[in-house]
């Protein structure tokens, strides 16, 4: 049996590199040889046992690679093509997917809708922190990489760019908007870049890590606030002359950031939530205007599918946004356990790591 | 000095009918002689002291009447015309109003946005449970009543029809949607009617008062659930074969109804909240899909202004919806204290009362 | 070789019933035994040679039937299930389809977008006026018929209901709108019904055939205009007191109806075009307000895919709209040439015919 | 009687500077002393008699100035404040304005909607190429200039920035879109800048004047096409690999540019039209996909009102876009006839002129 190296969830606290069989290719699948991948904040939650996955699963959901083998029913691609696939891999043919809600794809379920059902890699099927990854519904998910773009240049497309931009898009940001982005980790930084891309005029980024605040400025923030130096709610209200922001983006997943978003929102404004939460959330009566503020709260799970990936790679190719600085560290797949250690503890100013099998 | 009768908030627990001067008419105002008005659930909160207004204020925000006198700068109307004005009276010229968010009108504030600022009648200025009411920014707010419509036929337009329909509209209900409406008071009944008007295919109404459940069927509900007989969350999931609803409308203002809305919502669905809350709200982690369910939560304060009123009266004239059955009781203005007593205690199957000065 | 009966385009002027092999089932396909189908106005254009298709093609794109055989890669269905498929059969995995524009699906093309590419049945692949039809991308297209609905009740879903409703939906009809629908053939009648479903308050239907005008009233029209008795533009402007309509729907495909739509549109209004045109169109300078009227013109090709079909059958099941009266005549497949003759010449008050293999 | 200098339309071919009384200030008006204004392409059409206005009218609709005197009913402003007003001055209280369609404001008409009714300055009331201008409905229209911005920096806000950006906004440009902009006059250049602001990834600008093509690059175009050197339709289809653009913006007002927009549009794409036309338009059958291409055509008249102006000045203040290079020439009001001559003949690489009273 032919085997490959893969990063496997063994038990809470342990993701290890081990041998696994190279997967069989079904009629709608594609086998992709991974050339670059990365670690996501969600993977750290998996590692810690905070987000449950079954033992023995290969983790990782951000693949860049080369088509090794196509399923018998897959047309329109060639083996040897450089491709990416999104973290979310919709079937294209579920009810959710046909309704345009690809991330809640419930292919195989009775109704075709399943919460978070579109997230399969490293969640419900083997992921891509491995030498090979099997891409399901390949025709809906394989996105050829445009000539001239490197692996690292498109490495943010599968997840954080799609998620971060998605938060700006779903908020309906308009030309002239004032936008606050709470937390400037990889997702928040992409939300900052996305807000700029959508025409926000005044972007206020909140974090406390100096490298991240500096990076936020590179991504398009006009103001940065260190929440340990000053109260961001008061500061933002001051910056907006008491009016509040048109859009507040939550990019961490805590009560504190969620609530602060609501507190800085103008009447009629939109709170766009990107974080993964680990407890109930509270909507304070006053900040929520007793339900009378014409507020909108939207949540976004990473948009996926090959058309989304094509668009994001077009953004990269256009040089409108340069996300390369986000990749601060590089590791061989063989060293992935060290990469988890560094990334999980956010040491050494790490933003994103590249993993090269 | 010429005086009139008006229902005045004296202190928590006491709204009394008393004499007040007929107001002076400013250049942009219109004085309207009230011919019919009604009592709103919000007025009961004011009566109980749960929603604070200043002592001496005339309450009421749903006027039907006749133009008595126009301000010097008001053109396009004639004295003697039959008109209504919305519960929300936008200025038309504030930043909020020009942005289309009339209910958060902040005319007179620095920025032109103020939470709930569009609600003036019986809140920040004298209301219409009186013989006369002064309509501010008359050109933006006076809506002539089409020939052939009676006072009672248009009495629901200023508030509950606008609010209830608004909840259905802001939820973006589409043809073929399944919609649950929690609570079938006046607002909830109008939300039910609004959901039907927008093309919802399966409408599930929840309440416990038999008269209200029966009225819900008249307004367009396909299923009604008595929440004291059965668990509405379980019942709705069963009715939708486990899938959940596309849209859930909250029309009461409690944690329980809000939370139930979230629990019956499919991934990617919309919770449209109409209730006025009196405490913090909680978003349970699971029902909120940890923030990953592509959910939308929208709140709506009654849309106002003369164009909105014109549209709602057109709906009445078209006979698409018949809201007349909602008016279950009638009182003279002189008897308004009795009307408050009946309506406040929801006695005798009351839905809405008509008050005739 | 096993053969079946099929209505085949031979040459302009001739569609004949002939024998054809029953198709082979590919891995993603499903073979459906047709139990009921119908003839579309577009089929008449094909018959006349006005819309070109290749000779030997089986025509027809509105199938109701029973799954006979599933492709090897198709899961989630069972042979023997009663199903429909839309006239438009998106792949689900093309760029167009993943972008939600299923009707312009370009599966197999370089870019995944192709004008009218989603329309395959009786256009680019064999259609369903036959004993059997092969449904491509079965998992994206087969929609099980809810228990209790007859073939005829769902026969309008695949095309005219989807198209007609689509015209109302894409126009963004809002509660209180005034809508004019030009031409009350099957598509126009469904647009009238769709406008009502979306909350239009005043619906004005234009045609000249008395049966169609009568049917228009049943579908929800408030006013009907016989364009041979009166000038519909003048009449509509009169009915709207000079203001014009919020939305005008074109449902025929001629310069005259298109132009009339524009002439009755208020500033800021939307022209929703459903017709298939056979020549260049002209936008008269005045009616188009020299390009300064904030007008919107949208065109809609029949929305397809199983989620769309599910929603439309839900509308049928809800009894919100009763389209059964549209089926005025019934024929055996053996008599389809007579059916074409009757339908093509619009004799005997025909609206739609049911064809039963 | 106190008089002022004003540029007056005398007859086709003649706009002259002459004396006029300084206008009386009504209760809702404000008198503004003009400090800078400019000439618009539309003014040239007026000059030539192609767009009819009544003789004796003061032309010009792009005012920057200082509040000289406020009407008796105007609150929230102070005399001496630096302000701009949009080219379009909505009342705020008409039906059109309350519906958010400020440019079709019909204040004073029976229904409150009037084609192009929001455009008053230099069209239906005296304009701002004068020492003073009377701003109607001042509370809806006066927008204070943020500290630190010069007259010239905000001079493009009242019209071309609002119009050009409006074309990009109404087209619903999304991150990753490919956009073509036909004609790079002042409006087209602003449409190019607006497309960039909204997240377009590939922007293709078409013109033939070298200075304008160079300016287009500064405004954000990725590709420029000189239509006298090459066929822009063929070139754009080549650049997009045969797919066509997501959005095409027309910024001139001719059959040729309008038609080219349609020819380069992908199925499902949007044509956003900004030009003022002077004859009927033709939609070629093929380019319009016989009405089956799911195309959208939108037209936009310059959005106005103080909230719009506030947002645009915020864009200027943010330095996202630098429109100062568009002002290529400066004239004293006394020399306005020379300015018309230069601008009307597009001599000397002129893009926009500043006129200083």
Automatic annotation (TrEMBL), chains A, B, C, D:
The UniProt record lists the keyword Coiled coil: no
- Taxonomically, the superkingdom here is Bacteria
Instruction: Write out the entry's keywords from A to Z.
Output: Metal-binding, Oxidoreductase, Zinc
The reply on keyword RNA-binding is no
Cofactor(s) listed in the protein's UniProt record: Zn(2+)
Give start and end of each Enoyl reductase (ER) domain.
Answer: 13-355
Q: CDD domains per the record?
A: NADP_ADH
Q: What InterPro entries does its record include?
A: ADH-like_C, ADH-like_N, ADH_Zn_CS, ER, GroES-like_sf, NAD(P)-bd_dom_sf
Q: Which GO terms describe its molecular function?
A: oxidoreductase activity, acting on the CH-OH group of donors, NAD or NADP as acceptor; zinc ion binding
* Homology family: Belongs to the zinc-containing alcohol dehydrogenase family.
What is the official name of this protein in its record? NAD(P)-dependent alcohol dehydrogenase
Give the species this sequence originates from: Azospirillum doebereinerae
């Amino acid at each position: 049996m032919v085997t490959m190296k893969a990063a496997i969830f063994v038990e809470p606290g342990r993701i290890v590199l081990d041998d696994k069989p190279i997967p069989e290719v079904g009629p709608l699948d594609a086998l992709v040889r991974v050339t670059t991948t990365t670690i996501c904040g969600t993977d750290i939650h998996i590692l810690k046992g905070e987000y449950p996955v079954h033992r023995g699963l290969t983790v990782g959901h951000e693949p860049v690679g080369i088509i090794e083998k196509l399923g018998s029913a897959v047309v329109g691609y060639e083996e040897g093509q450089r491709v990416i696939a999104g973290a979310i891999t919709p079937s294209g043919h579920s009810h959710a997917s046909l309704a345009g809600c690809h991330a809640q794809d419930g292919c195989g379920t009775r109704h075709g809708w399943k919460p978070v059902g579109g997230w399969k890699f490293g969640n419900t099927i083997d992921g891509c922190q491995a030498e090979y990854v099997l891409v399901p519904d390949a025709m809906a998910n394989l996105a050829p990489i445009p000539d001239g773009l490197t692996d690292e240049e498109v490495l943010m497309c599968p997840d954080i760019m799609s998620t971060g931009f998605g938060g700006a898009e779903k908020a309906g940001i308009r030309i002239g908007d004032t936008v606050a982005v709470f937390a400037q980790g990889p997702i928040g930084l992409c939300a900052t870049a996305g807000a700029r891309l959508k025409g926000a005029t005044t972007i206020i980024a909140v974090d406390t890590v100096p490298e991240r605040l500096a990076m936020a400025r590179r991504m398009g923030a006009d103001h940065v606030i260190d929440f340990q130096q000053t109260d961001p709610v008061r500061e933002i209200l001051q910056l907006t002359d008491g009016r509040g922001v048109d859009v507040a983006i939550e990019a961490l997943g805590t009560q504190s950031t969620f609530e602060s978003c609501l507190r800085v929102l103008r009447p009629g404004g939109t709170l766009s939530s990107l974080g993964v939460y680990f407890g109930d959330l509270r909507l304070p009566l006053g900040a929520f205007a007793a339900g009378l503020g014409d507020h909108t709260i939207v949540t976004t799970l990473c948009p996926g599918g090959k058309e989304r990936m094509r668009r994001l790679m077009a953004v990269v190719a256009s040089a409108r946004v340069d996300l390369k600085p986000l990749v601060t560290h590089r590791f061989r797949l063989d060293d992935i356990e060290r990469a988890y250690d560094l990334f999980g503890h956010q040491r050494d100013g790490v933003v994103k790591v590249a993993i090269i099998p």
